[in-house]
Amino acid sequence: MTTVPVSLTSDMIAAALHQLRQNAPKVHCVTNTVAQYFTANVVLAIGAVPSMTIAVDEVEGFATNADALLVNLGTLDDTRRVAIPKAMRAARDAGRPVVLDPVKVHRSKVRCEFAVGLLAEKPTLLRANEDELGALFPGGATFGDMADKDRTLAMSGRQDLIGDGQKCLRLDNGHPLLAQVTATGCAGGAVMAAFLTVEPDPVLAAAMGLSVFNIAGEIAAERARGPGSLVPELLDALYLLDADQLDGRLKLSDLQEGTGS
Amino acid sequence: MTTVPVSLTSDMIAAALHQLRQNAPKVHCVTNTVAQYFTANVVLAIGAVPSMTIAVDEVEGFATNADALLVNLGTLDDTRRVAIPKAMRAARDAGRPVVLDPVKVHRSKVRCEFAVGLLAEKPTLLRANEDELGALFPGGATFGDMADKDRTLAMSGRQDLIGDGQKCLRLDNGHPLLAQVTATGCAGGAVMAAFLTVEPDPVLAAAMGLSVFNIAGEIAAERARGPGSLVPELLDALYLLDADQLDGRLKLSDLQEGTGS
Amino acid sequence: MTTVPVSLTSDMIAAALHQLRQNAPKVHCVTNTVAQYFTANVVLAIGAVPSMTIAVDEVEGFATNADALLVNLGTLDDTRRVAIPKAMRAARDAGRPVVLDPVKVHRSKVRCEFAVGLLAEKPTLLRANEDELGALFPGGATFGDMADKDRTLAMSGRQDLIGDGQKCLRLDNGHPLLAQVTATGCAGGAVMAAFLTVEPDPVLAAAMGLSVFNIAGEIAAERARGPGSLVPELLDALYLLDADQLDGRLKLSDLQEGTGS
């Protein structure tokens, strides 16, 4: 049951984006080989500084001296299997926020088991779609069951839900063309990691990151002819995004249940 | 000797493309690290769904629950050497079509030997250029020698030849600027794999895939200023390609030899 | 102390670029997973032919039958650690020029130690920024100390310095937006490697490559709306770059100290 009201305005998102651009936080991304290039460009476009190594000998150092960590389970090869727990522990020990994105766990039993093990490392934020959550939490668990105070959840889909068991937000921004480009979801996870460096509440940080990414996606899709031109347009829109655009487009709903609690 | 006439019209290609967009088949791509990002976007742009893992523990599962498999031998590291035969066998056991692209085997003896071994796995379609075929089949073998009923061959070049020993087609679509962009050939292999999910005859499926890719390439090259703008234009053109464009541009010749046989 | 005057004109750069486009030299790039795709497209855009494998069994063959080698230490996983010294030795034994780019060695002690070891392999050109050089040569070494006749140095930054202990050039071309796109520095290293195939003096070759890359970057940045559109514009600008553009934009200074020596 969500019982706590959430107040998140476009002005707050714009202020956090401004702060992010001022700080230029380092975001270390242990992500899949397909998404690395685009993710690095997305991280740069929002004003943060990416690093991407997955080398076992290096990953703890990079995770420690970065300001946030993204872990994405795509192309989960042997090196990544060893590097990921090391990176997550190093980041947690250094007090860094961690986003976990269990890409396509519904397509691979071995990957799903690996992901379940990582939940024990208590990532700050779990980002997944409905299929992936269904594989991680079998037995028809509801969003309320899966999100709790130790595990903020951002569920992507036609609408995005973000909650921590006490608060819950719904986002209605975005555009279908984003799904015709590879790694947009993966890169969105890196944006959420970047916002966790300027906003300590994971629900707010995730909502800020997703709003920024999806609103930039709307602007880009309106300018693009197809998925090819969407990519440069999206990076430009992220780079140029301003408070007026956020204010004019934000579609965020507080899903608080009950009253007066 | 090619003895069987082939009937392939732009309407048939348009119908197959429509079917492909309806079905949204899953195409698993074990491809090189340079081509992964662009290939995933090409697969999405034609309406299919890519997956790209090369992890040894995962690749059989992904190959089995996909609808077609692309194997590309670029950046042939140790993981790929183990994963590729596993993926090919899993796909064949599950009845999935397999496209093999022996990238740059003429530049590496060890890669060439590996590729020759893979021919024993009987890929549905072998896609290669003249240099690569020269390395795979030394001793001046002709196209007719190399293509047979167990091995449909798509030979790319200024003109593309597609044959299975009985039928042979020549395609004259495409644009030189496509060669100034990395991974266009690699991504073309994934398009052919996608068409194998809607057209069972490998000669027809390969010709459909190559025609779609090369005609989109022509449209894109006419709009592009150089190889940089070609990339978004090509993805947009693939996404927007319609029956009229196919009809107006298709250059396909049946190379049947002899008469009345 | 720099004592030898350097004469490098835009006409010489244009002539070398023309020669490069005529020759279409093969540049083998052992580079990081993030940069591979963009680097391959940059190499193609200037008229050279990239290959990118890092596989241990293949890398010596590719390095030997290429015309130049780029080694970039990003995403320095176990395979790269083994492949890189093999590639460097094979290239040197075959008389090929080698560019070493010790990406982010200031972020990883283990990577820095590896890079210091590679300096013993005597790369033709070391390309690095100030942070990276500070990690490689601790104790406040000056540019003059770090560059010597066995080690030409290209130090990137707001201004670029290129020297070999006897000659020194300063380049003032480029645009801040280039830093908002991933792998521009990495790809610039590949361009320098390509110019080493047409100009034997590493100082001149590095200055030619950097001028070409940075002037194309200026042209692209003036046409781009942000970092997204910069990528296609940059590749187009490299492909279309001509003598007039080089002549109108080149900002190159000879930093010769003293007179008459």
TrEMBL record, chains A, B, C:
EC number: 2.7.1.50
Alphabetized UniProt keyword annotations: ATP-binding, Kinase, Magnesium, Metal-binding, Nucleotide-binding, Thiamine biosynthesis, Transferase
Pfam families the UniProt entry points to: HK
Binding positions for substrate per the UniProt entry: M52, A183
UniProt KW NADP keyword: no
Transmembrane stretches, start-end: none
Cofactor: Mg(2+)
Binding locations of ATP: R127, S156
Molecular functions (GO terms): kinase activity
Domain of life: Bacteria
InterPro entries: Hyethyz_kinase, Ribokinase-like
Record's catalysed reaction(s): 5-(2-hydroxyethyl)-4-methylthiazole + ATP = 4-methyl-5-(2-phosphooxyethyl)-thiazole + ADP + H(+)
The protein's annotated pathway: Cofactor biosynthesis; thiamine diphosphate biosynthesis; 4-methyl-5-(2-phosphoethyl)-thiazole from 5-(2-hydroxyethyl)-4-methylthiazole: step 1/1
Entry function: Catalyzes the phosphorylation of the hydroxyl group of 4-methyl-5-beta-hydroxyethylthiazole (THZ).
Family: Belongs to the Thz kinase family.
Name this protein carries in UniProt: Hydroxyethylthiazole kinase
